[in-house]
Amino acid sequence: MPESSNIEIVERLAEHRDAESAKKSWQDLVVEILEAVLLGVVAVATAWSAYHAAKWDGHEAELYAQASTLRIEANELVTLGGQQRLLDVSTFNTWIQAKNEGRDELAELYVRRFSDEFKIAFDAWLKTDPFSNPTAPPGPSFMPEYRNPQILQGAATNHEASRIFDEGTVARKQSEEYTGTTVVLATVLFLVALAPRFQSRRVRFALLLLTGGLAVYALVTILGFPRL
User: Relative to the CA of 141, which of 55, 59, 74, 121 has its CA 20 to 30 Å away?
Assistant: First the structure.
């Protein structure tokens, strides 16, 4: 074979290799650009998700603290209300004793010592003719007119504490959801950072598809979460 023909064949092979090399470089460049864009987006999303997880965690602690404070306040109110009710009932019993003994002045003194709420129930109880009516309630504290404001306020405060505590539980769950999504995004960051270590373009492209899908899932999930 003439030497010129060999040279021509070598030149054509070289041109083919150069074209193939250029083609590979272009594809690798596209993959690298996509990896860089994905890495940047996921890095920002990871920080954003972690930030909101921390905010919800702090909101949870704040709500639990409020609920605890209200529980203490409710217990104090119920205790004071119970003491007031015990005082009214004790005073009523001494009124019964004085009434039976005919000591009207002493009985009137005990009536004046009733709390305003118990006095209303006491007047309503007297209208039932309790001394001759066997169906009358045993005392004013059993009348529907009797209201103990401290006990009622304590019950309302306790109900508010339960509501706030439930909000704290919701905040804790929301923080956990943000944290779980942050873990997914961190996994994406790890895989994207690992991809350049593979020489095979197919492996890198497969990892790019996988991480891209995970990133889209995590971003859509985050966008659906409530924010403070």
Answer: 74
